[in-house]
Amino acid sequence: MDAITRDAIVACAANGNMEHDFIGQVVKVYENSALVQILEHHADDRMNARELLHQVVISLRQMTVMTPGRPAEEEAAEALESVG
After folding, report:
1. Closest by Cα among 3, 2, 5, 1 to 69
2. Do residues 12 and 20 make contact, with C-beta atoms less than 8 angstroms apart?
3. What is the pLDDT of residue 71?
């Protein structure tokens, strides 16, 4: 399994917020979940996506990487730059 990092394009399984699977881009990664910007969704989920402002927090187990995001090393270097 590819590591899920920021800017990765992911396929997400339907969950409590969305009735159908959808495609999104990872905005922020947490310990066991990620904030995902909804890019493509089923037509029936249009109102759900709108209510969520096209963003949803979803478990890492419920997503599959389609296009890798930023390398973890780049993320760590960016975090160090923001601290110092």
Report:
1. 5
2. no
3. 81
Instruction: Say how far apart CA 84 and CA 79 lie, in whole Å.
Output: 9
What ranges do the domains of the chain cover? Answer: 9-83
d(CA 23, CA 17): 14
Question: pTM higher than 0.90 for the full model?
Answer: no
In this structure, are residues 72 and 3 in contact, taking their beta carbons and an 8 Å threshold?
A: yes
Tell me which fold the domain 9-83 belongs to.
SH3 type barrels. (2.30.30)
Distances (CA, A) of 22 to 5, 27, 39, 42, 63: 18, 15, 8, 7, 10
